[in-house]
Amino acid sequence: MNDKASIASLGTLSSTSRAVIRELLTSGPLPRATLARRLGLSPARLTKVTRPLLDSAVIYEDATAPNKTPGRPGTPLAVHAPRYAFAGFKITGDTLYGTRVDAEGRVQRAKSVSLESTDSSHVVDLIIDLVKELGEEQPLQAIGIGSAGTMRRYDDRVRRNQYLGWDDVPLAEILTAKTGLPTVISGDIRALTVGVQWSGPGQGHSDFAVVTIGVGIGLGMVIDDQVHAGTHGTAGMIGHTRVSEAGPLCELGHRGCASAYLNADSILAAISVPHGITDLDLDGACRLADRGDPVAQRVLSDAGRALGVLIAQVVNVLGLDTVILAGDGLVILEHLSQELNSALRDHLDPWGTVPHLETFHSDFDEWARGAAVLSCQWLLVDPPKLLAPSITHQQ
Amino acid sequence: MNDKASIASLGTLSSTSRAVIRELLTSGPLPRATLARRLGLSPARLTKVTRPLLDSAVIYEDATAPNKTPGRPGTPLAVHAPRYAFAGFKITGDTLYGTRVDAEGRVQRAKSVSLESTDSSHVVDLIIDLVKELGEEQPLQAIGIGSAGTMRRYDDRVRRNQYLGWDDVPLAEILTAKTGLPTVISGDIRALTVGVQWSGPGQGHSDFAVVTIGVGIGLGMVIDDQVHAGTHGTAGMIGHTRVSEAGPLCELGHRGCASAYLNADSILAAISVPHGITDLDLDGACRLADRGDPVAQRVLSDAGRALGVLIAQVVNVLGLDTVILAGDGLVILEHLSQELNSALRDHLDPWGTVPHLETFHSDFDEWARGAAVLSCQWLLVDPPKLLAPSITHQQ
DNA sequence: CCTTTTTATTGACATAGGAAATTATCTACG
DNA sequence: CGTAGATAATTTCCTATGTCAATAAAAAGG
Q: Coiled coil: which residue ranges (chains A, B) (predicted)?
């Protein structure tokens, strides 16, 4: 009949429609019957909910997959993911990484620019330029930003960012005013975790943790399908957990804390100082260890032990069976897996279960991608009140 | 008109009605307007939802509280809590503790019996007898059971209980068959945590942890208003967290683990062995420390340090601002608060916030009370499908 | 007494959802 | 090849849940 225009924003759909899309995005194409069972709806309702989504080309009927069970085969529904684009940014102390992804989290474009200053108005200008550039070919649904700090899961401002020197910058309001796009802010590790959850190795897991190593140590966690940030956004601060009473000092003067063993700078200093060398990087450290250098070997095995202890503690508290390792420091992982595993087993509670460890090799763009996926999740889970519902059901 | 009979089971109410009752039970009497705002409903809906609840005397209109703001004062609604009774049990290795509580978690009766054997059929018989006795004066809404083990939040069976030697006992099914009452099983620490959450010091907090010391170390956590149990019910297993690389051995042969410092038996052995005494209890240990006994003082301060490290780790992972200390080992707390606080501050992440520590003095009945509150929460949050809805709305 | 302010109720109406019957489309099997 | 059995999807009809706008109610302060 009346050919409705396509849906402007996924955030204006009804909660049931959004639940359908969420399920399709996180689980892949599914027939109506399966969807109905998963969402606890009747088949009748599902037909009624999906019809307007089909009419407006938010979703489509997938080619019928071959079927070996008796009975009429279901026609899988799938989201027209490429029709919906999201912009995601990661702000580090010196660089702004930006990506455009589709609803399934596939990166369509990526671009990074150096920060000339950490002044918030400068960074805002850079973000706006990048938003315009990324949105040239296709309108954007939302903007997601990840940076260090103590933001809540879906926050509207940057809180306590030590690298940028920002405290309480209402970035979402500013960007929404200047771009007209709904914007959400989150801690970078939380954004990465959402990327892992919806379109990474966390898919299909209701509970897991992401542990990142690199400049610092990060912990993101998904509990009951939700990213957990803590009351004040301070969850996952495990970088200064004491691993040993002896051991090296971290930059805060803690002896034997995790960052003193695991931060890239700590590892490099621990190797290069005794050897009197400079210009070492993690790859170089690994090569040294491969060649039998005792200092490098010891430093890396100590790092492995520290990581094992950390993971064990997280698993003991949360009772997880999946932990995903990520971060740019991951190159050292194969040199420390032995110590890691033995420390993990040694510190796990005997009544707990040994978690499945997965590695997720990722660069900085992956953090920006996570922020984009975060904005998509935000629209589909907890959309801001902006516009009137775009489609209604008729019986 | 037709004077409907009073509601048989709270579990048969609609989800909105249950949300209203939940809010009233956890926040106390509230006027309709406030209730509507908190639950995200329109005032009109609230009037319509609460009318049948008033008609059937599930709730009542409280005496109007004095009011100083302009405008018509609201009439607070309150739950007829004493009309609804729940039975809660805690099963230890040698005793069964039973309580009957009302919907607000107030204990109406309590009784405990010793187990003659840990045989499940024997324990089942004891529970059934106690259920009958507790339900004499008033019909029971549900049964809640707490025991050690790796049960999920609202489970139907006892899994891996080391003290009873049970593994996979379908206790809920058995008890429902024999008593006709909906039954829910949970880990004892989780049951205690629910008691703390709904009618204890956790009221009003969306996120907090309960740490218990006594025979063992327990950790219960509430995240986003929900008790967290982990995928396999193994969350909160922090008893064997390594606190130090030196230190005493625990019963599993871990050197310097938390139980080696904090379990009642460990503390008592550490003091009585050097002194060559027997028959020491925790009160005695405290008296020794008060009198200046260096062994007792050292053992207790070590315990305080261990507890501080444990709490810091939990807070670092979860980002909590409230931690509640409980358990029968709490008597030693004032002797170790100094070491506890310094270890806590020393091990907390500098970007985290120092949590508010509260103590909750409780006996074993409190654990049974928690199980009863758990069954109430279960009915109101996630009721089993048993009966047809008992009241309907008419426009 | 009247205005302001907030709470509570009412009735008209829209939407979300389910149950049961019906139709559609596949496999298995004689 | 045709039919029985199984499962998927739709249709029809009904109910439950919710909003909106208008109105009444109950206080405080002139």
A: none
